[in-house]
Amino acid sequence: MNLRKKTLLTIAMTAVLATGAQTALAASTELEASNGSGANDTYATAEGYSIGDSVTGYIGTYTDADVFTFTAQNSLYAELYIETAGNYSFTVTNKATGEHYSDDGTGLIDMPLTYGETYYVRVFGLNDKGKEYRLSSFHYF
Ligand SMILES: [Ca+2]
């Protein structure tokens, strides 16, 4: 292999590795079976989450809820959204302050964050279950 080809191959492999690493960091899966409930349904059993990450999961039963928690790393705004074929809704709650936001079925919540505060994201079905959802988010100013 000549030097030019070897250099191009190295660049391509580096790009693949960088992309793969980024995906591995940013994406995760709910820790509950796709037809299950009960493992992460409460604030006490919430799964860790970070703004900027995507997590996929299922509302496994009609009474299932999936709760995720994050601590704000800044006092910017956050947009959280779910993408799903299911008839699902979600809320974000700060237990300490009583702040509570609902997507009202739109799949979208825009909210201010307060540095150091802990928030809970709760995804649930509106008489629906069995479909996958993806919860994602990002910071904005
Ligand atoms: Ca659950």
Summary of the model, kept short:
By secondary structure, the chain is of the alpha+beta class.
Summary keywords:
141 residues; 17% helix; Jelly Rolls; signal; 5-stranded mixed β-sheet; globular; Peptidase C-terminal archaeal/bacterial domain-containing protein
Would you write up a description of this structure?
Residues 1-26 form the signal peptide. This is Peptidase C-terminal archaeal/bacterial domain-containing protein. Keywords: Signal. This protein has one domain: Jelly Rolls, CATH 2.60.120. It is 17% helix and 40% strand. It contains one helix and ten strands. The chain has one helix at residues 3-26; strands at 27-29, 47-48, 54-58, 65-71, 77-84, 88-93, 100-102, 108-112, 118-125, 132-140. Strands 1-3-10-5-8 form a five-stranded mixed beta sheet. A five-stranded mixed beta sheet has the order 2-4-9-6-7, with no helix packed on it. The longest helix has 24 residues, at 3-26. Residues 32, 37, 39-41, 64-66 line the site of calcium ion. Calcium ion is lined by residues 32, 37, 39-41, 64-66.
Task: List the ions, cofactors and other small molecules found in this model.
Answer: calcium ion
By DSSP (H or I, 4+ residues per run), the number of helices equals 1
Number of domains: 1
What's the architecture, going by CATH?
Sandwich
Give me the strand/helix succession. HEEEEEEEEEE
Strand content: 35-45%
Radius of gyration from the alpha-carbon trace, in angstroms: 18 Å
β-strand number: 10
The helix fraction, in percent, is 10-25%
Coarse structural class: alpha+beta
**First-last Cα distance:** 49 Å
Protein name: Peptidase C-terminal archaeal/bacterial domain-containing protein
Keywords: Signal
Signal peptide: 1-26
